[in-house]
Each structure stands twice: as structure tokens, then as C-alpha cells.
Fold this sequence. Notes:
- This protein is an alpha+beta fold.
- The chain is built from 4 helices and 15 strands.
- The protein folds into 2 domains: 67-189, Barwin-like endoglucanases (Beta Barrel); 198-270, Alpha-Beta Plaits, CATH 3.30.70.
Amino acid sequence: MLSSSSLQRLTVLLLVLVLPGGCAQPTLIATPDGKTRVGAPAPAAKQVPEAARIPPTQRPYQIKGKTYYPIPSAHGFVENGIASWYGSKFHGRRTSNGEIYDMHAMTAAHKTLPMNTHLLVTCLASGREITVRINDRGPFVRGRIIDLSYRAARELGMADQGLAQVRITALGQAMRYVENGQTRERFAATPDFEHGDFFVQVGAFTVRENATRLQRQLAAEGRPAVVQEHDHGGRRFHRVQVQAGRTLSGALRLEKTMIEAGFPDAFVVAR
Length: 271
């Protein structure tokens, strides 16, 4: 029969074993005679900071003082605009995702799409179509939506003129994984829908009152806006962003509207 002190110790042990959270869970270890015993608690899983899990190519970046925000998904992405191309000057250099640029491969650069997105590029004048894979960032010229490799531009029939009006449609994304020690790719098709909460940023102020004044002005015009605070370089900015709905195509239309309304630096932000 257990003494009262032994019973108390057993009760405490049982509580430690069954209570969830806070404490590491015990490990059951099999012994050579087929029995099991309680071993040392398994070490807690190491927590990885959220920012560390975001690929570098999906983090915001700045070019010539303008910040670009890569979108989280290519689902349902369709965009019309001007295509350009880049060739021998960049051949052999590293692209944004670390690959070596090959002007003879069917690749392209886009400012915000996830890397390895496969796009159908349609020349609106001729109806000619090609498929390319995104592995770089650009072009950073207003109005241009995609920079094709030299080969892709030749296949589309626009290498000689340099520019063409195109429509780009996301087909899917190449998902990379390791199997038997080798890196392989699997093509994941893109569902036919757009994804995300979209805003169009129209201004950024160091003085909050200026941001609030613009927010009220936009609200009076029937354009709900929010003010987002952001610290950069030791300074706090107040960003004014107009709500643009949940579709990228609608957000891009609003971006064009805001540019025409007197906000030349307006751009789409995805959350």
C-alpha cells in the first residue's frame, strides 16, 4: 500500500504526463525485452521567425525609391500591357532568383509575380502565343508589364520592334522538391480565381495629419482608404492606401484610375 507521500508524488507525476501545453511531452522508449519506459522529454521544436520563412524573392524591395510588393499567389492572374525584352547585355548574369540568365531560354521578368510562375503570353496584334517561366524582376518602366528573354521575344515575333501589346495569363507554378537527394520540379496548375486583399497606395507621409487629410478627401470622393504605419530607415511613414477589393484585375484598373486622377506614383499593394 502506498504511503501518503508516495501517493502525492505519483499524482504529481501523472499530472505532468497528461497536462497539455507549456511542458515538453514525455517520450516512450522501447527496451530490448519488449517493454516501454518513460524517457527524457522530447526537445521542443525550434521556432522559426515568420520573416525567415518568406523567400527573399517574395519580400518587398525598392528600385529607384519605389517599393514593390510581390503578390502571394498567381491564382487567376491576368494582365494587359506592354512587353519588352532583354538580351546579350544581361546574358550570363544572375537573375533575381539566383539563376544564371540565359537569353536563349524561355524565361521572363515580372515585378510582383511569384518566381517560377508559368505564363501564357499572347501578342494582341497577331494572336501569337508562347509560354514562359518567371525567374527575374522587372521591367521597371511604367506601362511595361513583362520583360521577355531574347528567345521568347523571337518566338512571339516582337524582337525586331522591341515592344508589343500583350496579355499575360498565369498557368501555374513550378514547385521544387527534393527526391532521393536530387532537386526535381512538379508543375502545379493555377485554379481559375484571383486571390488576396488588394489596395492601391497613393501617398506616404512622415506627418500623420497629412495622411489623415488625404484619407478624408478620398472618403468624400467615395473611395474608402486606410492609413498604414511603416518604419523605414529610422523614420515612420504613414501610407494612404485605397481599398481595391479582392481581385487583382480590379486593383489594376483602380491603379490606372488613380494615376489619371493625379496620383502618378500609385501602385497596387497585396496583403
